[in-house]
Amino acid sequence: MSDVSKAPIRIQLADIDISQRLRPVDEAKALFIAAGMAKGGLETPIEVRPAPKKAKKPYILIVGGHRCRAAFELGWTEIDAFVLDISADEARMREIDENLYRAELTELDRAVFLAAKKELYEKLNPSTKHGGDRVSEQVAIFGDLAPRFTAEVTERLGYSERTIQRVVARAAIPASIRARIAGTRLANTGAELDALLRLSPDEQAKALDLLLSGEEGAPRSVAAAHAALTGARAAQVAPSDAEFDGLLKAWRRAGQSARARFIADLQRQGAITAATEGDDQ
């Protein structure tokens, strides 16, 4: 990768294409950032790449969607930016890595970013895909995750390969449904996302109509909404699933020191061994 601009340059906000982002802008977060920018200016320039010659705008945003939105809210017409000479795939990976490991990501956002990262790993490392010279029982069970991808996510998030598969699967929820639940508690509840995933797109939409209606007595869960529509008895979320989601959230918020102490304590209790401590953390 080579930089078009070694130092940031000032570019027009109107010249930046922000339509290709994986994660929509959180308006509340953008306003919070705007308050800081109003006092102290832009501390960290955004990152863009040159757009193809026939594109309507000369730049495509890589990193800094919330900063761009904040600048717009402040009435700015220009913003400082690093212009990077990188491919579309490299830009997408940079966007993913900038966001993926942040604690404030919802479970839905994390699923979308992980799925996109997995897809890029497989595109850049075709030999790791299912089949070819890597057909094995493990690949057949867990899918075609690239080893480097799995190792990185396990180290940064504490996920086992089975958990990665579970989270990545949630990105299959249609974009129209993801847009409807963004900013709601459903977007940050793994068990609810899994329940949505078990429904067809039409069933998902109808269940959300009930869940998000705001009416008194409206269902409080995807399972309850689906049961109300079908007349079936609502399936209860297994306590172990809820506990598992809670443990994952606590692990992700913890620092490396706390994680090491936690593992050491489990080892002292005989709950895990060095050979098993990475499983389903």
Automatic annotation (TrEMBL):
Gene3D superfamilies per UniProt: 1.10.10.2830, 3.90.1530.30
Top-rank taxon: Bacteria
ParB-like N-terminal domain location: 9-100
InterPro entries registered for this protein in UniProt: Chromosome_partition/occlusion, ParB/Sulfiredoxin_sf, ParB_N
Listed name of the protein: ParB family chromosome partitioning protein
